[in-house]
């Protein structure tokens, strides 16, 4: 496949993570970045400071909207004024929560605007992202495949047929790196409290997280089987898991946390 023309709007935490992943891929896109503060883009991609600075001969295949939701409508209005029909010919790929496909299409000025919503996470910057993807009915199959290919360059893609399913993806994958980082943070802290040095505790916790994640990724067994395989009856792991698995601890907490993420996503969408 020919490398697509990609216009990335915003190169902050998420936009920057995606750009880093794309530029490290074997077949990176032809990337242009619109960001008024960025000094250097990944892969030395060209940077423009305003929509009016986008070259007249640059026709984006995909426009990736990676700005804060509060500024999305104003940015799309500016793009519409600067690009005109070139915007309509592109597919808009959003990485934001809280802006539905219909809302984004209206902000672009065309009800039939091709809009794709994705929910990537920050491990995309190291090629290990997890992305939920929904394509509105106005997205062509070719546009959808370009978007899927782009997001696969930075990790795993899970397409969904209902836009509302993205709320569940946020809870299970989009926000979840923070859950893992928090658990690692707690393990590091507890290691120090148990007598290890900060350096030892940090190395142990991070190496363990990497190893467990690699097993989940590389091995065919499901998570339940892997857990049982490492848990000897009446052993140390069993003693620790008995605390975690009490119905008022992790089983309840993880469910409540996911439900809280879904509720907040619904509030943002509405």
Automatic annotation (TrEMBL):
Catalysed reaction equations from the record: L-proline + NAD(+) = (S)-1-pyrroline-5-carboxylate + NADH + 2 H(+); L-proline + NADP(+) = (S)-1-pyrroline-5-carboxylate + NADPH + 2 H(+)
Pathway: Amino-acid biosynthesis; L-proline biosynthesis; L-proline from L-glutamate 5-semialdehyde: step 1/1
Pfam families: F420_oxidored (PF03807), P5CR_dimer (PF14748)
Gene3D superfamilies: NAD(P)-binding Rossmann-like Domain, ProC C-terminal domain-like
Residue ranges of domain Pyrroline-5-carboxylate reductase dimerisation in the record: 163-268
Enzyme class: oxidoreductase
Subcellular location: Cytoplasm
Family the UniProt entry places it in: Belongs to the pyrroline-5-carboxylate reductase family.
Purpose: Catalyzes the reduction of 1-pyrroline-5-carboxylate (PCA) to L-proline.
Protein name: Pyrroline-5-carboxylate reductase
The species this protein was found in: Saccharibacter floricola DSM 15669
Protein encoded by which gene: proC
């Amino acid at each position: 496949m020919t490398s697509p023309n990609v216009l990335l709007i915003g190169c902050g935490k998420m936009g920057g993570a995606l750009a880093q992943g794309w530029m490290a891929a074997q077949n990176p896109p032809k990337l242009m970045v619109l960001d008024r503060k960025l000094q250097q883009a990944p892969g030395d991609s060209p940077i423009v400071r305003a929509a009016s600075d986008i070259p007249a001969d640059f026709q984006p295949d995909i426009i990736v909207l990676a700005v804060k939701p509060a500024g999305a409508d104003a940015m799309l209005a500016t793009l519409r004024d600067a690009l005109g029909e070139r915007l309509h010919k592109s597919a808009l790929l959003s990485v934001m929560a809280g802006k539905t496909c219909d809302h984004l299409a209206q902000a672009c000025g065309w009800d039939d605007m091709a809009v794709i919503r994705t929910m990537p996470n920050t491990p995309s910057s190291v090629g290990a992202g997890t992305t939920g993807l929904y394509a509105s009915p106005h997205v062509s199959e070719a546009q959808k495949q370009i978007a899927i290919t782009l997001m696969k360059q930075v990790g795993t893609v899970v397409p969904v047929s209902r836009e509302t399913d993205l709320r569940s993806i946020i809870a299970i994958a989009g926000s979840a790196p923070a859950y893992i980082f928090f658990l690692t943070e707690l393990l590091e802290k507890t290691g120090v409290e148990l007598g290890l040095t900060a350096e030892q505790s940090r190395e142990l916790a991070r190496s363990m997280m990497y190893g467990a994640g690699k097993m989940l990724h590389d091995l065919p067994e499901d998570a339940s089987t892997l857990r049982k395989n490492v848990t000897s009856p009446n052993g140390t792991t069993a003693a620790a898991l008995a605390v975690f698995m009490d119905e008022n601890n992790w089983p309840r907490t993880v469910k409540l946390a996911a439900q809280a993420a879904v509720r907040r996503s619904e509030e943002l969408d509405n």
